[in-house]
Design a protein that fits this description.
By secondary structure, this protein is of the alpha/beta class. The chain is about 40% helix and about 20% strand.
Amino acid sequence: MLVSTPIYYVNDVPHLGHAYTTFIADMLKKYHALRGKDVFLLTGTDEHGQKIALSAAKHHQSPLEYASQISQAFKDQWDYFNIDYNHFIRTTDQAHQQAVQKAFEIMHAQGDIYKGKYQGSYCVSCESFVASHALCPDCGKETIILEEESYFFRLSHYQERLLDFYKQHPKAILPLFRRNEVVRFIEQGLHDLSITRTSFEWGIKLPASLHDPKHVVYVWLDALLNYVSALGYASLDTNKMAYFDHAIHVVGKDILRFHAIYWPAFLMSLELPLFEHLCVHGWWTIEGVKMSKSIGNVLCAKQEAQKYGEENLRYFLLREVPLGQDGDFSSLALIRRSNADLSNTLGNLIQRLSGMAIQYFQGQLKSTQVLEHYGTSYAHMQALLESLDASMLEMQPHKYLEDLWKVFEGANVLIAKEEPWNLIKTDKEKTMSLLVLIATLLAKSAFYLYPIMPTSAQKLATLLGLSLDSPNFKACMQKDYVLSPLTLVKNPPLFPKLELSKEPPTTPAVATQPTPPKLLKIGDFSKLEIKVGTIIQAKSVPKSDKLLQLEVDFGDRVRVILSGIAQHYQPHDLIGKQVCALLNLEPRKMMGMLSEGMILSASDAGMLKLIAPLEPMPNGSTIS
């Protein structure tokens, strides 16, 4: 199995978004490797293109010198975070350049590449040709008009084959709403793709057999082929190519089109297997704004980890928002999440177990009656743990962690219910069984925690006398497994409480008196017409990641309302649901459509939930 990150573009040093992608990939490797699979984790840097040449010139360096410096910064960061990669590829590697030239030659020989002329708008920042716009639709920067000789890839030739692939493999792209976005784009019609440039030299030259030295391979054909060049494509040693039979690519939503359309078309042309999954995540924003060097709000993951802990950061990013949706990062949210989940729930459970074991039994735990006393609780927790695999395979790490924490919460509830501090006075054997049960649940859970927080999971396993490997995982997850006998000793807290960093603010703080909120009179509220309605139809809005078009029955009439909930709800899940909506708003146009009201919702820390009555109400019922 191959698990890959994108190769990161070396126009700037790594930031929090790069770390998030890499944490996801590392999580997948650790998860599958623990289950006995041979997993190859690939990451690296993308170093060619006009933007790199321009950046190097600004720094008075050659393109290779500049790319090497930034590439090393990425490698150092992944080493700091103990990312378990098997290979760090650079597109300036000789083996990669040979693979690109071989692939180009094969595509050209079978007629998938032809020479023509490109004229149109080009975004230097995105290294992307765009429709005729003054501004790039992806990054908002000005485009340039480009006219030059170019080789083209017959992307249009693969339109139907791509649609067939996504029809036959509905879970090839996760989350599923991203697949729908890709299919809609393909259905609009694909145009042949310019894949070479002549206006700069910093790139891979065409194969010598084409006798056309003025061309260099355009960055996306060059970059995407890293996923096979790193495995030995075009070399004498192709043993590693077997990893590509089961490939999972982890990418951000901004490069979805390149990976979901261009890449599989290239693979079809080369008669290579297509990926198993394309895992597409959202962006991390700062106060709702995408991180950008020009804005000055880019966060360095290493600096955040040095303030709050490497694994606290990793846990927060993987737990806080559903994969595929955007998340808003703040130190305060990280601290709250870490203190609540790690310190209070899991950390407290570990401390309670070791404290009672030492106090009541000198740390020596042994019982053969766990299932006799607590069989029902054991079975319930075992079922919860077994359900986690579905969440991970569906690329829902937030759900995986949410359900894992139900095991820890359930163990804490069981302790409170059984009151071992009183039980020990009347039934030592049952008290012993309770503590062995808690230890067993923690042992099983350590294997599930490992892909998310490897160092913390190892520490927990060491406390319990375990090693986290594939044979132990299989043994520990047996339905009747009990961790006994066991010796526990006193240990410092695994998850100390966090506090806000005491670093001085970057700008002077100005003390101001808070403005008291303006209070409304009851008559002001009565001006709002808020009613209950039932959603009878829901569908995505073309060309919008955020909007859903809802038809809502309010009893006297059906209204069409556009609501920015597409990243939180799937259309088919909303049919028949009741909602509350503000109706006496002026109709407004969005994406060329008229919206006749506003659906009410509640949001916090990147999560959003629709507001609805606790019990079903007649359509048109007034909220007062």
